[in-house]
Amino acid sequence: QDYTWENHGFSLVNRLYSDIGHLLDEKFRMVYNLTYNTMATHEDVDTTTLRRALFNYVHCMYGIRYDDYDYGEVNQLLERSLKVYIKTVTCYPERTTKRMYDSYWRQFKHSEKVHVNLLLMEARMQAELLYALRAITRH
């Protein structure tokens, strides 16, 4: 909560390696904002809340929590099988199987499930960067 990408990580990484912060930020934002505005068979759906829940759930697993986020959304939007999948993909990617991938959101398109995976990996990368950059700041 006291060390975020937007407020601290971005500027520090830019100081350490010129312009890489802009490239990373663009990558994080592109994946975060990517949407077809669909969910399974439903069209014109605002998926912002779901994308935020996925991103914040990964950060939460890495010990990063935000005071201004209602974590009740995570429990409302992410079913148990999806949470198990998220934990496996982000913490133990070598244990991820096709069976696990198939076990959540069965009615969703593969493109939507692939987007979930992209979100998870970018959230993990950002969390890892935050820990590394915070360690550099403290040193």
UniProtKB/TrEMBL annotation:
GO BP term, example: negative regulation of TORC1 signaling
Name used for this protein in its record: SESN3 protein
One Gene Ontology MF term: oxidoreductase activity, acting on peroxide as acceptor
CC terms in the record's Gene Ontology section: nucleus
Source species, domain of life: Eukaryota
InterPro entries in the record: Sestrin
